[in-house]
């Protein structure tokens, strides 16, 4: 299997060498320059592409975190209002203590009907 694959790759390179464009480039004096520029810029292009994909991942992560922050700010506002009502508003405190904790005043009786 591997031998067959190597043979196909060698065949491909041989056909490439036979093309006229490759022969013209190889015969020209600037072939080494073109090859050098290609070899020089190929790793740079690969690095740019990889970094670009990493930046997109980070942008997605940032947008998800910003969404979560907005949701948590809403929860914080609601809880802050409730906390203020519990600590400063005696009527709200009395209502919650009666409804949630079944507390009563000294001169009352409570009957729970479910």
Task: Characterize the structure shown.
The protein is an all-alpha fold. The chain has helices at 2-18, 20-27, 31-88, 90-101. The protein has one domain (2-101). It is built from four helices and no strands. The protein is rod-shaped.
Describe, in short, the structure shown.
This protein is mainly alpha-helical and 114 residues long. It is built from 4 helices and no strands.
Unreliable residue stretches: none
Question: What share of residues are in beta strands?
Answer: under 5%
Shape, please?
A: rod-shaped
How big is the Rg?
37 Å
Number of helices: 4
Number of separate structural domains: 1
Amino-to-carboxy terminus distance: 77 Å
Secondary-structure element sequence? HHHH
Secondary structural class: mainly alpha
The helical percent reads over 70%
Provide the residue-averaged pLDDT: 80
Largest sheet: none
Number of strands: 0
């Amino acid at each position: 299997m591997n031998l067959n694959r190597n043979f196909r790759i060698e065949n491909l390179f041989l056909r490439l060498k036979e093309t006229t464009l490759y022969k013209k480039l190889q015969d020209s004096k600037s072939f080494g320059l073109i090859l050098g520029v290609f070899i020089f810029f190929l790793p740079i292009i690969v690095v740019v592409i990889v970094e670009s994909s990493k930046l997109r991942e980070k942008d997605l992560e940032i947008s998800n975190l910003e969404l979560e922050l907005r949701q948590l700010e809403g929860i914080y506002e609601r809880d802050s209002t409730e906390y203020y009502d519990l600590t400063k508003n005696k009527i709200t405190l009395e209502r919650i203590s009666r409804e949630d904790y079944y507390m009563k005043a000294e001169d009352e009786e409570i009957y729970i009907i479910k």
